[in-house]
From TrEMBL:
CDD domains: GlpA-like_Fer2_BFD-like. This is NADPH-dependent 2,4-dienoyl-CoA reductase/sulfur reductase-like enzyme. Residues 368-419 form the BFD-like [2Fe-2S]-binding domain. The keyword DNA repair does not apply. Pfam families: Fer2_BFD (PF04324), Pyr_redox_2 (PF07992). The lineage of its organism: Bacteria, Pseudomonadati, Pseudomonadota, Alphaproteobacteria, Rhodobacterales. SUPFAM superfamilies: FAD/NAD(P)-binding domain. Keywords: Oxidoreductase.
Amino acid sequence: MSPDLVIIGAGPAGMTAARIAAEGGLRVVLLDEQDRAGGQIYRNLGAAAGRDWLGPDYARGADLLRGLNHPGITHQPRATVWRVDAARGVIWSRDGESHVTAAPHVLIATGAQERPVPFPGWTLPGVMPAGAAQILMKQSGMVAQDAILAGAGPLLYLVAAQMIAAGSPPKALVETGTDLRHALAKLPRALPAAMTLAKGLGLIRRIHGIPRHHGARDFRAVALAGGRIGFGFTTRKGPQELDCGLLLTHLGVIPQTHLTRSMGLTHDYDVAQQAWRPRLDAWGGSSRRGVRVAGDGGGIGGADAARAQGALAALAILHDAGRLDLDERDRRARPLRRALARALSLRPFLDAAYPVPKAFLAPPDDTIICRCEEVTAGAVREAAACGAHGLRLMRTALRTGMGPCQGRMCEPTVTGLIAQTTGCAPSALGPGRIRTPVKPVTLAEIAALGRQPEETA
């Protein structure tokens, strides 16, 4: 029997939506790449017993995991979605086999990705995103040793606090700095999220005693003997040199939009977050009928916002499916909208407090920008000066965005370099066209779609 709803992504938004939709009588298929539901925030929660050092917010996802036990939900783990076809449905693969699942409603809840942090040496072994280190903590219980945290944003403090609680404190925090002058003007709007602000202050207190370097710029990493990393930067005190076994970087997160862009959905440029996001209505509705987006994939808001958005999308889908009348939908939505407003009230303050330094949007010429094709910032600037004034032309000239990551690690920086060279606003340069498959698949998986009947979950 065909499902009524396909949800892509089993994070806070996807899990919340699945339960509400199933309780409303819909047959739900939940597709997710991981072995277990949870998304990035609650990754591997069901098998992470004894890791109390990950903190109470991590454990809050347990209620969402229990909610997936509803008989109306079919959870498909290890499912890589690589195309959403208007005619055929959601196309996904698992263990080398392709599948098609069609439904009248699709909810995309694919979440966020870490913003690339390019600087000379960022491609060296032992230099990795802070979020990747946190994934290792959640997935395998592996805690970084002899590590330096560098960049800006709340996640740096959270990872540092988790490392301290696990008995492996970072050697140092190297922070690019906060813009409190602009952020303080937005603080009154953040007061509804006072409890979240208090948690953030608590994290900062927990890292007391860890060496901290403020206002850092001009990052550079070099390989040292014995597999160690030399990390150089400049502060008001002048040039600084540290060494470590692991360098963890972070400058915030941006929406994952490869799937929504491949579908041709309308997107807008978010100046505060310096990233593209799909254009959505108050119920997560996109520019295509029957397709909704919830969670950080529609704009960065965090776990609480994702829960509320997933619930609102599910209510709208139930109404569209004739399972919920308009008055009941709106009645149930009112407390969710209050929760969403409370969660999002903090966002303008955080965006202003932790801006992305321009040096990371347009780094020095010797920085490798496209890791897949080993293209440098200097090459991108030269191509832009010679007429490659867009992402498509840059792909033609240098193959940026054509490697295995499909631009996930280079597109924000390539956009910044083109904007710097041409004087165009980033919003005038995209969003770049994304073609399917949006994840690497074999030719056999693609070919199999032509000879198998459409599947239902």
